[in-house]
Design brief:
Elements: H1 5-14, H2 23-46, H3 52-69, H4 71-76, H5 84-95, H6 134-155, H7 164-173, H8 193-215, H9 222-243, H10 257-262, E1 266-267, H11 272-277, H12 285-290, H13 299-309, E2 320-321, H14 324-346
Parallel strand pairs: 1-2
Helix pairs in contact: 2-3, 2-5, 3-9, 6-9
């Protein structure tokens, strides 16, 4: 056993009994999120513009739908055939209405591969910690434009089937939720392309209906603006969460499993605020990279076991931060230092 594998094996033994998914927790959690998210969303859409009622409903809906949408991450990590009913139901009641079908997150698996994490082939990684600070602002700005891009992408879906090459190009380059737009999806030979096409056309129909009800005069054109604002709010929460998931110091080299852990972050802040901004255990992102198969409802238990049992010199302890702000301050300091080095070299 090599030196790197030894501490990981020891950690695996401590949490070996926590890998079973409790489906009822998933169903209840999702149902509650959608009742709150869609219910408050309806209030937001019907409320007087810029009223306190509308702003409050928008806030509640954004957080609830952010949590509901985050189940796409859990679905991606399910073993083949596991909780298939939940994955199907999620796509019907959440993925399709919110224009985020689960197959658009197939690329996430690359984010966990040691030969792809942190490289140009990783769609969820940018070297923000070793780049000028303006790159952080550009990253966050994606949330403003992404709802429009996604809507247009699905509205044009029928045209992607005009030729097999067009379809292949679209799947590789425009069918993944990424922050690194140089990423290209590697499509396996056994990919369920017909299922993907069916789900995508269902999302296309959703987009058409959104436009049709406005054109027909059922709803005013401002309804589209309201939905766009809600989309930005949900995405802004996710981008804000992603900003502190890693240190983002890697500039393209391949990283080992242990190096992935050390480049990732666990945030231990407690209370409702932390859960709102980091739903489904996403605060334990370093732990997730260590053991991607752990279900979200067991991440807290696993983290507490590791922190209290592992020796003081364990690399796991280096991933732990008390708050969101402590991670952000370090990321900003890294970017400023990189900026200063670049200016010194230019001088």
């Amino acid at each position: 056993m090599n030196a790197e594998a030894s501490p990981i094996v020891a950690m695996r033994k401590l949490v070996g009994d926590l890998f079973d998914h409790r489906s009822m927790i998933y169903w209840f959690d999702l149902a509650a999120c959608l009742v709150v998210g869609y219910g408050s969303g309806a209030i937001y859409l019907a409320a007087r513009p810029f009223s306190i009622e509308q702003i409050a409903a928008l806030t509640v809906s954004a957080f609830a739908l952010f949590r509901a949408g985050s189940f796409i991450h859990e679905i991606t990590h399910l073993r083949q055939g596991e909780m298939r009913g939940f994955a199907t139901a999620w796509n019907i009641v959440c993925g399709i209405p919110m224009l985020m079908p689960s197959f658009f997150y197939t690329n996430h698996i690359d984010h966990h591969k040691t030969d792809r994490y942190g490289t140009i082939h990783d769609g969820e990684y940018l070297p923000l910690g070793t780049s000028p600070t303006y790159k952080i602002w550009l990253f966050l700005a994606q949330a403003i434009f992404l709802p429009g891009y996604v809507f247009l992408r699905f509205l044009l879906s029928p045209f992607t089937f005009v030729h097999p090459r067009v379809r292949q190009w679209t799947l590789e380059r425009a069918s993944s939720f990424v922050m690194n737009f140089r990423h290209r999806l590697v499509i396996p030979e056994n990919a369920p392309r017909r299922l993907w096409a069916t789900v995508e056309l269902a999302v296309w129909l959703r987009c058409v209906v959104m436009l049709a009800v406005v054109v027909a005069g059922i709803y005013p054109w401002t309804r589209l603006i309201q939905l766009y604002v809600l989309g930005i709010a949900v995405l802004a929460l996710n981008y804000n969460r992603n900003l502190v998931a890693h240190h983002y110091r890697n500039r393209g080299r391949k990283m080992s499993h242990l190096e992935q852990l050390e480049d990732s972050v666990n945030i231990t802040g407690t209370g409702l605020v932390t859960e709102l901004f980091f739903p489904l255990g996403l605060r334990y992102h370093a732990l997730h990279h260590l053991f991607p198969g752990l279900p979200y409802h067991n991440l807290g238990t696993a983290h507490r076991r590791l922190v209290t049992t592992l020796p003081a010199d364990s690399p796991y302890h280096t991933t732990v931060f008390p708050t969101y702000w402590s991670v952000l301050v370090e990321l900003w300091a890294d970017a400023r230092a990189s900026e200063a080095r670049s200016e010194a070299m230019a001088a």
